[in-house]
């Protein structure tokens, strides 16, 4: 099956199996291994990317459903050496430990902040990240990081 | 020292640069030319005899290369997966360790146990092949329940009563006497719920074999690649140790579950030579639930003897520990030497007697999970202490204060084998109470009640034993490995430094913390230190990361190697100063000599070491590279005081943590930011155990909570903001004065939460996890 | 996943034709339930028919006291509508953000998971479900566990929700899955008080005893002493039938209190 995707600003025409997932295409076909897969029931959120501007779990989107879509992954949010404010905030607030959930967490957090009409409070950040599991940080510093990044986005 | 990057500074982490940009290299991110894919065929039955396995239909699937069964591994001389610690029963007999072939041959003993595996060109083909394997089983009666396992059908031929061992520790007679003289005895029957570790990165392995050099390379998600290598070589007989390289690249969390040597990486590395191509396996989460070692699962009866004024006189603990179907790598040590030895807690209880019966069931093997034995011990001690205070109508804080080992009593020999080197438990307690605003509690409770809510407060004062040691003692107690750590410090010609450590980092931030230590001691820039770990091809040896040992043991090994570097540097400097080494000082990166007003910076000595112009090479070898092995003299003993305040909605049973305060004493701290982060993570897992997480099997041995749909992982909104602080009594027996911080949060928090919940509900016990349903039912039973 | 053919439908007729010509076809809307089932090999269709390219199925509009939600409207889009705040609020609590960005109302209703949220809204608000063939009253739509009034191959096109005078949804979420253990929609509509309950039983239902009590007195206390028969309720790891029974009352009261607020 032919699928056209724009990924991090580059256009790709890929030939994939009909049952390929978007996460398979990103990781295996395009070599973008920053999008991680942590579960098989669409809950952990480690595979979160932006599809047409919204956060989605790439392990729960068929490649065919993403045809013609514009996708941003963790590899595509920095502007050259200039990191995205969310990336900066995650490091500055020690919001990651093993780093495995981090790409998905950052992609969700960016969408959360961008979708908010008004500045988010801590409780809203906690609720807003319910689609992403972290086993290392207890989320404490992730919440701090998102609030911190919000001021710079 | 540089105040911004030295010891004690919250330096931002080096490793983050790759993780926040998606450039981390986890095992599944690595692919090699010619790679094949592997899927394991797993038992759908909890206990069954394997009559036959037909692999022909799988071989007929397009893309399938080979299908292996357990018999082929046995025929090739592959051994059982060993348990590395022999625990003896009361009667002196060694534990029973049933045969545990990596791939089952004649029987399967838990749902998920692999009995075949398929290697194929694609993952899809491997999955199709795995589904096509046909097996004929005789289904046998399964044993599931911990409490009744020893009176159930016998699972293993060599394990009567399904017992692995029946262990004891402490003075039974003295404890009996203490109970005879007691004014009051508090009794508590409690369970410690089974947990499933759930590092967010599933386990994975990529094995390849190079026929030309007869060497194997295994990338895998291991917390201790050298241990993985020695077990695969020495016990499982995959290959001579020298021909086997194990690499743990970036690893996405471990929490104990990635210490062990499992069937999957064994099969993958072995089969890579048979297939002649690299083989990759990555667990689906559903597999992780079944095939990763689980944690906890104790049923305990405890009794505490007290005087009428609250003096703790004696403690009796009798525990049944569920080991699952087989003895996993270090499982036997968990409910014994890492559990019974902690029963003194922070108290001067003079007589303690602990019994642990380890039983087999038809469930996934149980082994170390964050805290490993110590959370279970703390749960027993801190729940029964709080219960005793309620029964005696004493303030639980006062009862604890009355029984704390006082600061002037150290070193303190407990009645359960350990000698605590230092601590100040009352200091942590005072600080915790202050942060918890305990004075304002009554008003908060009244406010909750006015709102129709129930409020409770609970305390927990834990003791931990980290950096299990010394090797000779531990080996005499049955351990099959040493418990030292190794380090190598390689100074480059230009003065930059590479550090090879045997401690593996899978989230702990070693690349930063260890670099701080080296930069601080050598007085060189933080950025010129590069920490390398996780590759048996690059460092000599290592025992790895578990039991909060990395800084206390691994860090001390680095410190010892740095001593050697500085000593050699002084010798070189002495020649440059034309004096003797005893007259050379080294401080803040400068070698100096009172006879010279031109000190030599570290980099200059490094250069001189490799451009040996000034010193006699028959006395001093060129180069500046040193190795050290550090074997601790004792455990380290972190301790802390936790306070938890909950509010419960009686109409739904929902418990909300309103306040959680953790004050820990980790001795000296290298990077406070990282240490606090470790505490946060531990608290989340401990609170998860108390409120959310539970590995449940049905009567037939099926894992009912086998996915995130049913096993509740703590999410951000399930947890409060934590209030974390520290006190410090530096460790007296390691050079850094450090204790270790990785597990503390998970050890201390469950008891604090459950003490708060039982306080709110006015009941003696609520089983963990205190889910809304469980709390609601508890309230209904009382109503 | 098993192998299957991914088929893009360009319009409703095309989708139906693909469905009819296939020996085993399944439609995919957002895929939030279907794709995990496929991944776990719990489903093995020959053809997966993608409805996302069909035009005109995702509009949300409001006319003459009715909010009309296209079947392919995503949960996040329903959550952003303002004409029925209770419906928006319900949608904003389905799953998690990523799920809401993909999942659709039509997909959810066609699946009829006993713990899904939307069925409570359909019953509580008295919605009508429109398909390519007919209009089905919400009260007739939910038949049994994962079973609806839809014929094989029939496609939901939109759901019409009459705008209530006031309504509120209270949900007690499963801590692991975020599905509703119990969810209750209470609405005061032109046709009287309606109470839709999801999560408790094999499929969503109206609770007439509550409707009668609240018709007489729209206050939480009106529900005191009304026995909720939980004998046929779901009982699982997370909640016994009795607990669900209790939660039905507690959630209904919460919804009523939100109405008053």
Short description:
With 783 residues, chain B is of the alpha+beta class. Chain B contains 19 helices and 28 strands.
In words, what does this structure look like?
- Chain A has 153 residues and is α+β, with helices and mostly antiparallel strands.
- Chain A has 2 domains: 2-75, Beta-grasp domain (Ubiquitin-like (UB roll), Roll); 85-150, Orthogonal Bundle (DNA polymerase, domain 1), CATH 1.10.150.
- Helices cover 31% and strands 15% of the residues of chain A.
- In chain A, strands 2-1-5-3-4 form a 5-stranded mixed beta sheet, sandwiched between helices.
- Chain B is an alpha+beta fold and 783 residues long.
- Chain B folds into 3 domains: 16-22 and 484-630, Aldehyde Oxidoreductase, domain 4 (2-Layer Sandwich); 31-140 and 201-252 and 258-291, Aldehyde Oxidoreductase, domain 3 (Alpha-Beta Complex), CATH 3.90.1170; 298-468 and 634-782, Aldehyde Oxidoreductase, domain 4, CATH 3.30.365.10.
- A 7-stranded mixed beta sheet of chain B has the order 3-5-1-12-9-10-11, with helices on both faces. A 5-stranded mixed beta sheet of chain B has the order 7-15-14-13-8, with helices on both faces. Chain B has a 4-stranded mixed beta sheet with strand order 18-26-27-28, with helices on both faces.
- In chain B, helix 9 runs parallel beside helix 18.
- Chain B starts with 15 loop residues before the first helix and ends with a helix.
- With 261 residues, chain C is α+β, with helices and mostly antiparallel strands.
- Chain C has 2 domains: 5-50, 2-Layer Sandwich (Uridine Diphospho-n-acetylenolpyruvylglucosamine Reductase, domain 2), CATH 3.30.43.10; 60-260, Uridine Diphospho-n-acetylenolpyruvylglucosamine Reductase, domain 3, CATH 3.30.465.
- Chain C is built from 10 helices and 14 strands.
- Chain C has helices at 12-21, 34-39, 75-79, 85-91, 97-100, 105-111, 118-125, 138-141, 208-216, 241-260, and strands at residues 5-8, 25-28, 47-50, 60-63, 66-70, 128-131, 135-137, 142-144, 147-148, 156-162, 166-173, 180-189, 192-198, 205-206.
- In chain C, the strands form 4 sheets. Chain C has a 5-stranded antiparallel beta sheet. In chain C, strands 11-12-13-14 form a 4-stranded antiparallel beta sheet, sandwiched between helices.
- Chain C is globular and about 55 Å long.
- The model of chain C has no long low-confidence stretch (mean pLDDT 97).
- The chains are: A alpha+beta (153), B alpha+beta (783), C alpha+beta (261).
- Chains A and B meet through helix 2, helix 3, helix 4 and helix 5 of A and helix 1 and helix 17 of B.
């Amino acid at each position: 099956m032919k699928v056209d995707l724009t990924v991090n600003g580059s256009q790709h025409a890929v030939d994939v199996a009909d049952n390929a997932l978007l996460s398979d295409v990103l990781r295996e076909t395009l070599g973008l291994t920053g999008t991680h897969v942590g579960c098989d029931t669409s809950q952990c959120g480690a595979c979160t990317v932006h599809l047409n501007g919204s956060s989605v779990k790439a392990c729960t989107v068929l490649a065919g459903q993403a045809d013609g879509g514009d996708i941003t992954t963790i590899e595509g949010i920095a502007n050259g050496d200039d990191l995205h404010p969310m990336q900066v905030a995650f490091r500055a607030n020690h919001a990651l430990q093993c780093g495995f959930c981090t790409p998905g967490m950052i992609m969700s957090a960016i969408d959360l902040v961008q979708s908010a009409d008004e500045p988010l409070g801590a409780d809203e950040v906690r609720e807003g990240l319910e689609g992403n599991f972290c086993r290392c940080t207890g989320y404490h510093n992730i919440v701090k990081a998102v609030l911190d990044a919000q001021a710079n986005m | 020292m540089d105040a911004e990057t030295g010891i004690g500074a919250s330096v931002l982490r080096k490793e983050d640069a790759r993780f926040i940009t998606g450039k981390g290299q986890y095992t599944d991110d690595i692919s090699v030319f010619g790679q094949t894919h592997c899927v394991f065929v797993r038992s759908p039955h909890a206990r069954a005899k394997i009559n036959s396995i037909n692999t022909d239909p799988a071989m007929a699937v397009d893309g399938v290369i080979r299908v292996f069964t357990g018999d082929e591994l046995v025929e090739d001389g592959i051994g059982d997966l060993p348990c590395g610690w022999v625990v003896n029963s009361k009667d002196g007999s060694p534990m029973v360790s049933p045969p545990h072939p990596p791939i089952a041959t004649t029987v399967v003993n838990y749902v998920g146990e692999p009995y075949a595996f398929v290697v194929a060109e694609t993952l899809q083909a491997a999955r199709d092949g795995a589904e096509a394997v046909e097996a004929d089983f005789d289904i046998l009666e399964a044993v599931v329940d911990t409490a009744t396992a020893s009176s159930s059908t016998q699972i293993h031929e060599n394990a009567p009563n399904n017992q692995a061992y029946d262990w004891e520790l402490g003075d039974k007679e003295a404890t009996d006497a203490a109970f005879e003289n007691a004014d009051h005895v508090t009794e508590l029957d409690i369970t410690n719920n089974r947990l499933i570790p759930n590092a967010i990165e599933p386990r994975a392995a990529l094995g390849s074999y190079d026929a030309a050099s007869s060497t194997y390379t295994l990338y895998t998600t291991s917390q201790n690649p050298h241990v993985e290598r020695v077990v695969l070589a020495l016990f499982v007989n995959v290959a001579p140790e020298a021909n086997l390289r194990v690499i743990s690249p970036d690893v996405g969390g471990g929490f104990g579950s990635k210490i062990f040597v499992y069937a999957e990486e064994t099969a993958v590395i072995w089969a890579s030579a048979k297939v002649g191509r690299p083989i990759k396996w990555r667990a689906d989460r559903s597999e992780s639930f079944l095939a990763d070692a689980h944690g906890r699962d104790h049923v305990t009866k405890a009794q505490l003897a007290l005087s009428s004024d609250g003096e703790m006189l004696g403690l009796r603990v009798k525990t049944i520990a569920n080991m699952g179907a087989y003895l996993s790598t270090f499982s036997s040590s968990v409910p014994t030497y890492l559990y019974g030895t902690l029963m003194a807690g922070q108290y001067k209880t003079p007589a303690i007697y602990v019994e642990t019966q380890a039983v087999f069931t038809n469930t996934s093997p149980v082994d170390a999970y964050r805290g490993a034995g110590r959370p279970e011990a703390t749960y027993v001690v801190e729940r029964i202490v709080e219960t005793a205070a309620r029964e005696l109508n004493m303030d639980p804080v006062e009862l604890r204060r009355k029984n704390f080992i006082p600061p002037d009593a150290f070193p303190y020999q407990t009645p359960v084998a350990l000698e605590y080197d230092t601590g100040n438990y009352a200091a942590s307690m005072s600080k915790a109470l202050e942060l918890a605003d305990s004075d304002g509690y009554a008003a908060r409770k009244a406010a909750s009640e006015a709102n129709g809510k129930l409020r409770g407060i609970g305390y927990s004062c834990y003791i931990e034993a980290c950096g299990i040691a010394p090797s000779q003692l531990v080996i005499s107690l049955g351990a099959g490995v040493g418990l030292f750590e190794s380090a190598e410090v390689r100074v480059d010609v230009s003065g930059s430094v590479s550090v090879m450590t045997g401690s593996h980092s899978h989230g702990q931030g070693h690349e930063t913390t260890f670099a701080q230590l080296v930069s601080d001691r050598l007085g060189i820039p933080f950025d010129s230190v590069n920490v390398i770990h996780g590759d048996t091809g690059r460092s000599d040896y290592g025992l790895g990361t578990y039991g909060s040992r990395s800084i206390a043991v691994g860090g001390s090994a680095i410190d010892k190697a740095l001593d050697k570097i500085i000593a050699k540097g002084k010798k070189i400097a002495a020649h440059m100063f034309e004096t003797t080494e005893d007259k050379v000082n080294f401080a803040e990166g400068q070698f100096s000599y009172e006879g010279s007003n031109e000190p030599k910076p570290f980099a200059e000595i490094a250069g001189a070491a490799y451009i040996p112009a000034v010193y006699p090479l028959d006395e001093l070898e060129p180069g500046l590279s040193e190795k050290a092995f550090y074997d601790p003299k004792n455990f380290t003993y972190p301790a802390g005081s936790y306070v938890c305040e909950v509010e419960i909605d009686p109409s739904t049973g929902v418990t909300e943590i309103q306040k959680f305060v953790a004050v820990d004493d980790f001795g000296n701290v290298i990077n406070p930011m990282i240490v606090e982060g470790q505490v946060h993570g531990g608290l989340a897992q401990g609170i998860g155990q108390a409120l959310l997480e539970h590995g449940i099997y049905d009567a037939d041995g099926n894992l009912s909570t086998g996915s995130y749909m049913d096993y509740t992982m703590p999410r951000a909104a399930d947890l409060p903001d934590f209030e974390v602080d520290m006190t410090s009594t530096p460790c007296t027996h390691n050079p850094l004065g450090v204790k270790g911080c990785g597990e503390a949060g998970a050890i201390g928090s469950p008891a604090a939460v459950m003490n708060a919940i039982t306080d709110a509900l006015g009941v003696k016990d609520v089983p963990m996890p205190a889910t809304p349903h469980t709390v609601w039912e508890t309230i209904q039973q009382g109503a | 996943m098993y192998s299957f053919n991914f088929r893009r439908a360009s319009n409703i007729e095309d989708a139906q034709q693909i469905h009819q010509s296939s020996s085993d076809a399944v439609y995919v809307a957002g895929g939030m339930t279907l794709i995990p089932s496929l991944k776990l090999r719990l489903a093995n269709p020959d053809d997966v028919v993608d409805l996302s390219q069909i035009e005109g199925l995702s509009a949300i509009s409001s006319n003459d006291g009715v909010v009309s939600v296209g079947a392919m409207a995503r949960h996040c889009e329903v959550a952003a509508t303002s004409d029925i705040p209770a419906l928006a609020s319900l949608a904003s609590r389905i799953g998690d953000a990523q799920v809401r960005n993909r999942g659709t109302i039509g997909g959810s209703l066609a699946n009829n998971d006993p713990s899904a949220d939307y069925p409570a809204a359909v019953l509580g608000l008295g919605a009508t479900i429109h398909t390519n063939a007919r209009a089905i009253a919400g009260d007739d739509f939910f038949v049994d566990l994962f079973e609806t009034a839809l014929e094989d191959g029939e496609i939901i096109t939109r759901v019409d929700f009459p705008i209530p005078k006031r309504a509120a949804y209270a949900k007690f979420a499963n801590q692991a899955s975020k599905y509703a253990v119990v969810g209750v929609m209470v609405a005061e509509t032109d046709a009287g008080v309606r109470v839709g309950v999801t999560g408790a039983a094999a499929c969503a239902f109206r609770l007439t005893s509550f409707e009668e009590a609240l018709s007489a007195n729209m206050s939480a206390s009106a529900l005191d002493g009304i026995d909720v028969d939980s004998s046929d309720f779901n009982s699982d790891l997370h909640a016994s039938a009795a607990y669900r029974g209790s939660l039905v009352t507690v959630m209904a009261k919460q919804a009523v209190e939100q109405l008053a607020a």
